Amino acid sequence: MKLSRRKFLNLSAAAAAATAFPTAAYSQSSKPGGPSGSKKKGLGLGARNVLWPSMLTALQCKWAYTWGGTVPSDLPEGMNFVPMIRSRNVEPEHIASVAEEAKNHRITELLGLNEPDARKQDDMSVEDALAMWPLLMETGLRLGSPACVHPDKDWMIEFMAGVEKRKLRVDFICVHSYGGPNVGAFVNRLEQVAKMFKRPIWITEFGVGDWSAKSVGENQHSPKVVLGFMEKVLPMLDDLDCLERYAWFPAMPDSAPLGTSALFDIDGKLTRLGECYRDA
Fold first, then answer.
1. Could you tell me if 149 and 118 are in contact, meaning their C-beta atoms sit under 8 angstroms apart?
2. Nearest to 14 by CA among 149, 147, 120, 116
3. What is the pLDDT of residue 32?
4. Where are the alpha helices (DSSP H) in the chain?
5. Are 268 and 26 in contact (CB under 8 A)?
6. Residue 81 burial (CB count, 10 A)
7. Coil, strand, or helix at residue 199?
8. I need a surface site. Which of 46, 88, 181, 260 has the fewest CB within 10 A?
């Protein structure tokens, strides 16, 4: 059965919430962690995965998010956490609680909505998103836009038009991208989105996907091709003035569309791609 991108991401999120890989600590290979490396590099991963902190440490990430609002108790020392408000958690009491916890942990940013333009994700109308937005503004945190499947298409265009009309505040634009390994096209699209909405960009999910693949072996984007993409694009992202942060999506290694973009293998060891991300 063909697996759609949306269905895969739903399954992948569920797998991340459980212990999908072996319970041994994630391999950091021979390169130690430390303060060096890209300050833009992060990861989105469900914190109910018991190996969550090990994965972040192995990849030497500087920031992380979990698609949730609660700060994980096992957040690695010195790592910046960014909470998110989802469509199912828009009650004023919940948002106030997230804001208070953020203040206690010296968190300065907040992500708002995950793929509201997707039926199986946050699935929220533009009008409802605009109506809830003042509650997010009241947190006083720096606000990221809804992260859309299509950050430059109808839903996002209508939302940002409403933001301007109502004089609401959006401080940076969140982007998802799972296209092919064309580095130039990817970077150009980021610059176009930044120009379109006149704000800096965060890439909160990205990878190289083949959404017609029925197995990892049939994926047209081999691990070598994806590695070549990453090796070229990460230095460009670090130098891109309009981009503040990025987070590669931690796909499962047996995913047909995204398995060749996996950062860890089935034994929990860094893939060559994972080593590249670690070393960024």
1. yes
2. 120
3. 38
4. 5-17, 52-58, 92-104, 126-137, 154-166, 183-197, 223-239, 272-279
5. yes
6. 20
7. coil
8. 88
In angstroms, rounded to a whole number, what is the distance separating the alpha carbons of residues 227 and 233? 10
Task: List pLDDT tens digits, range 106-123.
Answer: 999 999 999 999 988 999
Could you tell me whether strands 173-177 and 80-81 are parallel, antiparallel, or unpaired per DSSP bridges? unpaired
Residue 211 has pLDDT above 90, yes or no: yes
CA 9 – CA 216 distance, rounded (Å): 16
Question: Is the separation of the CB atoms in 52 and 72 below 8 Å?
Answer: yes
Q: Say if residues 213 and 220 touch (Cβ distance below 8 Å).
A: yes
- The residue type of 87 is S
Close Cβ partners of 217 (under 8 Å, ≥ 6 residues apart) = none
What's the whole-number mean pLDDT along residues 142-159?
96
Among 33-37, 85-89, 119-123, the minimum mean pLDDT is found in 33-37
Residue 233 · residue 208 · CB < 8 Å: no
Output the CA–CA distances (angstroms, integers) from residue 130 to 158, 176, 179, 203, in the order listed: 10, 20, 28, 22
| Average pLDDT over all residues of the chain | 89
Joined together, the tokens standing for residue 245 give 């942060």
Q: How far apart are CA 31 and CA 276, in angstroms?
A: 11
pTM of the model: 0.88
Residues 6+ away with beta carbon under 8 Å from 247: 41, 42, 43, 44, 63, 64, 65, 203, 204, 205, 206
The β-bridge partners of 158 are none
**Strand segments (E) across 23-89:** 41-44, 63-65, 80-81, 84-85
Residue 35 has a pLDDT of: 52
DSSP tally for the chain: helices H, then strands E: 8, 9
Rounded CA separation 244/213 (Å)? 32
